[in-house]
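From the shared-data thread, chain only:
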Amino acid sequence: MRRAVMVLVAVSCLSGFAYPQTAEELVSKNIEAKGGIEKIKSAKTRLTTGKVKGGRGRVVVVKQMNMRPDLVRQNVTIQGMTAVQAYDGSNGWQTQPFRGRKDPELMGEDNLRDLLLAADFDGPLVDYAAKGNTIEYLGHDAVDGDDALRLKVTLKNGDIIYYYLDPDTYLEIRKEIQQFIRGSVRERVVDLGSYKPVDGVMYPFSISEGPRNDPGAQVTTIQKIEVNVALQDSDFALPASLRTEEKKSGMVGVH
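Structure, as tokens:
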């Protein structure tokens, strides 16, 4: 009986070493798996290009530019027309020629949610406390039948992201995003895979996302990621027409 108890204790100890038991340890493992905090923060700019499989066989070319601390610009090109969404650190703006809106316009707070996520250069896990995010380890779960470690991240604005980490690599394999907008919940599932190193940091090169009932609705294949490329503040800045409009209206930007 005593031997059985000792074996049970030993197994329990080994299982404790096998998987981190706190949210902080999980985040630390995730950051190390990506390349370590020094490598992650050595990137000051990032240029990501890829293609999205659209309906009816259409190919959508996407390009995202990021610059520290929180500037982002996304270009989406279809059949020679390009839509733009950008955040300059204070305000979001866009041009939507596919909707018949060729002139730039300011983005409202609700429409800005996804862009602000994209503007977080290192993602919500890095320096999470300083960003006002809170984390909670929820234990084990399954992703497509495989074991995963589930982490709940509550953002400063109240939105929630559930991270599913591979228990062997500690890299994200899935994110479930919940955004709370005017009394309703907007949800989507993002699956991540085909990780490759870029300047010593691991990035996913395959991204599929969609609603919970169709998580693979949109598949993005990343073709190239470049870091520390030459980008300018002007790439993200409000167009002149919007600077005039903002000054006249006295609009306060989103921070």
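Helices lie at 2-18, 23-34, 37-42, 113-119, 240-249.
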